[in-house]
Design a protein that fits this description.
139 residues, four-stranded antiparallel beta sheet, 4 helices
Length: 139
């Protein structure tokens, strides 16, 4: 399996999300106008809501970018790859019990671990996350 996203300037944010989601069905990407620090969530006020917008309209891209999304990368490494390659904020979310959780405390887990171990004790439970200053989305 090819673990690269082929990002073209005319790709929409939704198309990039779908490419990623096809590789990791229990994960998703959200795009933000500003980046964030490790183990911190992105501020929701910077969420890019228009998924039909092209990546070019929000990122520094004028040619095809191949972005590594290999299973051994941590969530934080992937987020940093987007920042370095495209100067755009990205946040990885993982799904557990039909609820999407932002990766903050789990930034150190690999994409494979986040995708395959929904019920793992390494990932905080929904009850644990409710006490943290994170946000979540109900699917």
């Amino acid at each position: 399996m090819n673990y690269q996203l082929s990002i073209q300037p005319e790709n929409t944010l939704a198309e990039i999300q779908l490419q990623f989601h096809a590789l990791y069905p229990h994960l998703k990407l959200e795009f933000f106008a500003k980046t964030h620090e490790a183990e911190k969530g992105s501020n929701f006020k910077f969420l890019l809501l228009d998924k039909a917008a092209t990546i070019r309209s929000h990122a520094a891209i004028d040619q095809i970018v191949l972005l590594d999304v290999a299973p051994y990368l941590t969530a934080w490494q992937l987020e940093q790859n987007f920042q370095t390659a495209l100067n755009i904020g990205v946040q990885v979310f993982y799904k557990k019990n039909d609820v999407w959780f932002v990766t903050t405390l789990s930034d150190k887990l690999t994409l494979k671990e986040l995708n395959e171990k929904e019920a793992s004790s390494q990932i905080p439970t929904a009850l644990d996350l409710d006490a943290l200053p994170d946000y979540k989305e109900i699917d």
